[in-house]
Amino acid sequence: MSEDAYVIGLDYGTDSVRSVLVNAMTGEELTNVVFEYPRWKAGKYCDPAVNRFRQHPLDYMEGLEYTVRESIRQAGTGIAEKIRAIAVDTTGSTPVAVDSAGIPLALNKGFEENPNAMFVLWKDHTAVQEAGEINQHARSWGGIDYTQYEGGIYSSEWFWAKILHVLREDKDIRQAAYSWVEHCDWIPALLTGVRDVHDIKRGRCAAGHKAMWHESWGGLPSEEFLVKLDPLLAGLRDRLFSETYTSDVSAGQLSPEWASRLGLKPEVAVSVGAFDAHMGAVGGGSKPFYLTKIVGTSTCDVVTAPMDKFGNKFIQGICGQVDGSVVPGMLGMEAGQSAFGDIYAWFKQVLMYPVERIVGSSDLLSSDIKTRLIDETAGRLIPELTRAAEQVPIDESGIVAVDWMNGRRTPDANQMLKGAVTGLNLGSDAPKIFRALVEATAFGARKIMDRFIDEGVPIEGVIALGGIPKKSPFVMQVLADVLNRPILVTRSEQACALGAAMFAAAAAKLYPDVDAAQAAMSSGFEHEYHPDPGNAKKYQRLYEKYSRLGEFIEKETSS
Amino acid sequence: MSEDAYVIGLDYGTDSVRSVLVNAMTGEELTNVVFEYPRWKAGKYCDPAVNRFRQHPLDYMEGLEYTVRESIRQAGTGIAEKIRAIAVDTTGSTPVAVDSAGIPLALNKGFEENPNAMFVLWKDHTAVQEAGEINQHARSWGGIDYTQYEGGIYSSEWFWAKILHVLREDKDIRQAAYSWVEHCDWIPALLTGVRDVHDIKRGRCAAGHKAMWHESWGGLPSEEFLVKLDPLLAGLRDRLFSETYTSDVSAGQLSPEWASRLGLKPEVAVSVGAFDAHMGAVGGGSKPFYLTKIVGTSTCDVVTAPMDKFGNKFIQGICGQVDGSVVPGMLGMEAGQSAFGDIYAWFKQVLMYPVERIVGSSDLLSSDIKTRLIDETAGRLIPELTRAAEQVPIDESGIVAVDWMNGRRTPDANQMLKGAVTGLNLGSDAPKIFRALVEATAFGARKIMDRFIDEGVPIEGVIALGGIPKKSPFVMQVLADVLNRPILVTRSEQACALGAAMFAAAAAKLYPDVDAAQAAMSSGFEHEYHPDPGNAKKYQRLYEKYSRLGEFIEKETSS
């Protein structure tokens, strides 16, 4: 690679899409443009009361055009013609009903305002009943348990549950939907001008983690399985896909229309899409047998291992294991905690009660001051708790908490489980409780690491990226002490988009493979947290208490 | 009783003493005068950091004189000469070192400012080590376990532990202390002009519940036991007492000096003293086989049963059982929860964190407004939580708490135990948690009631008095539903002082016995809470969860 080359990483998050324009030789991020989905922001097509969350394809399209054009504009003249590839990551499973041309129904006349014709966002939980049926059916139908490589428990957040739910609920969609496409597969199809849904190159990541696709059973679950689940699914399998692709593969080149809309050359390659956490792991510096943790409101934990050694091994109790879902040739294993930062946010919300209810209704203050005071308190509360919690010696408070306030995703998914705070006395103040909650989230992380190790997957290092690793040295030090491992924190602020850029560079053949792209383009690590041996020893004892408390809660929940 | 007769009930609490002047025929409370201890209020002689709490005898004497004289003044002319008796209840165990004349050392020259020469208040915990030694010694010395009728676990709050602690710590006291007297025994001795400590009539209540006095082993623990515990105790047993008296007995008549100081006739009888909760139970309307609950920051639960049926029965796991400690001829059984209202106060304190720390330091407010805002929030918080918690359906939140934030007093005392809150999810808000804490305190009460029943003491009714029964219909309804029993709430605001007045009337022979005095003078009940059968059924299931969680915590604590 002797000449300048640039690539674009597009990262579709829950609230916004981000374009990062990257120097493909150095990994330098030239521009970083964010676009908030306008319809989503206005609350359209959603009903939080029933956990219905839908996104309109126009939100995605407008964001695509705006962020890429604005990136190019900010980068200055001469850059646009050197852009060689685009790759896309998205949330998921976020499927949409499409017509036979692969066009989302909401873009067709008559369906513009129908939420069922839009993308069913990852966190939409309207398909709880359908997920339950899939789980029961998979165990009882007499054939293969197709959920086995997806952690053994199919979720209402996933592909088939959502499809079945919408098909049952909406006769219009039932008649008009020819097939279904994941968000991460649709954007590349859109960009490359696909006109037949059968020509869409489906990503291995989404298919393997959410659609029960596996090579060993010839792709998607059998027609028999699906029809027995519900006759409404008859024939759909053949209108979906049988082949899947890793994201180092080009899905094609930009269509003339989109080359023009974005201001790019038509020769620009478009990678096969994947989910944000998986590309984020690569962007964050993942290596084989490293546990890469994306830590925010919840966590997504990714480990890769060579297919030739681990391809046939079943890893008990994780969320999923898919050949090539992260890096081609590697088994991509996913685990995660249902709540991490969300637990701190929950405690903050509990503590805000007197501020919102009483200070917020006091006759002593004007309404302007009240609003500012509530905002100030909400903003300062976690930093203040953190400062105070840091002063509490480990094991001094006696408080032990369990982090299942949003159920347990891994190890061994169980959404019925709940959180707990024990060891309370009349001196247990808010900072001590907060410290115990932080420790509980770290213990939850430890359970996942231990499970990988117990299942024969050695963990040779830990990498952390996302909001919390950047923002909270306190949480990270507790995590390092609890895991008793050093933790590397990724430097890039936009690891998902950077990861997408690496896949773009690979798809454009700027590098022989993703590993080479990652090696050249990685931003490296900004910090390494080292465990304190004394702390690690104290936490070992608390971790055992956490484990026993967890066992009690599990037993109570199943009784 | 054909003529007008009045009696005075004196109730020495933690912060103040109260005199109630009562019509001995009707129980009508004519006056009610409170005196706050001035030295105590100024924080003198105490060190909360080491749980040292001492009270100066002058605080008690000044309060005695002020409240009685003021009562008489307020009652108007003609009443003083009709006053026939005084009875005293106090906190306890609250002993003081005295000289051979029965005078507290702090009233003697050279000891005026020595905290060890003052009353060691019930909540003083400086004798933790001594209590531990007593417990170990009682199990291992080879003779009788003298703790058996006091619940089997001797407390640092009690008589012998405190004496031993002070004797070890203070050489001056060691040399000057001839004997020791409980607060409830000293006030009658003072009033009746006792000049020799051996003439003090010791109350059965304090002796039996706190000094390991029991008829079956001839009074106090043997000299051998005491000397083996610590040679410092040698000879003390003979300088203490062997006889004890119930509070229907007159300790004597007012001394001329005190008759004059109080403005009363010298013929006024003075009852033998007792502890507040025991006289409070009588004042509150206790009956045999009724569970009388004095509910405030903690609870004191009293049951009486005929000695002829229950005198020889050992009741496992309660705080103590003493012949005549409540009513003569009845076995007085005591139990209690280490924290009740204190748990609500703890949660309030946790929630106040952002208000005190952040609102309290905000630049948006003047310091005057901050103070008022914090006060307003603290004042409105529990009522606001109560209102919101009442709206939460039983069993909807899934939260189950255990109420051992201050250890567990009964059943089966264990101060190492701690509290817990389980079943938490991201929707568990402050009112839901508060509701679970209220339910937990009710479950703790249920455990005590169940224990009495399991030990063969039938509970035929429940009576509640104290701050919480008067203030919180919500808590009382939860309690009635959890106990699945109607609960009578005592009408009198001053049940302890009223109970003392009943004993005064009995000691003055205005009635043949305390039962007759209680029947005539009781203020009755102001309300009866009835259990809702549907709620009781739901709570039965939650109570089982509470029990299993408690078992887990006990197991964890002992491991």
Task: Compose a concise summary of this entry.
Two copies of one chain form a homodimer. Chain A has 559 residues and is an alpha/beta fold.
Describe the structure.
2 copies of one chain form a homodimer. Chain A is of the alpha/beta class. Chain A has 2 domains: 6-124 and 179-208 and 245-284 and 493-522, Nucleotidyltransferase, domain 5; 341-491 and 526-558, 2-Layer Sandwich (Nucleotidyltransferase, domain 5), CATH 3.30.420. Helices cover 41% and strands 18% of the residues of chain A. Chain A is built from 21 helices and 20 strands. In chain A, strands 1, 2, 3, 5, 9, 10 and 11 form a 7-stranded mixed β-sheet that branches. In chain A, strand 1 and strand 2 form a beta hairpin. In chain A, helix 15 crosses helix 16 (430-454) and helix 18 (473-483) crosses helix 21 (533-558). Chain A is globular, with a radius of gyration of 24 Å. The mean pLDDT of chain A is 96. Chains A and B meet through helix 13, helix 14, helix 15, strand 17 and helix 16 of A and helix 13, helix 14, helix 15, strand 17 and helix 16 of B.
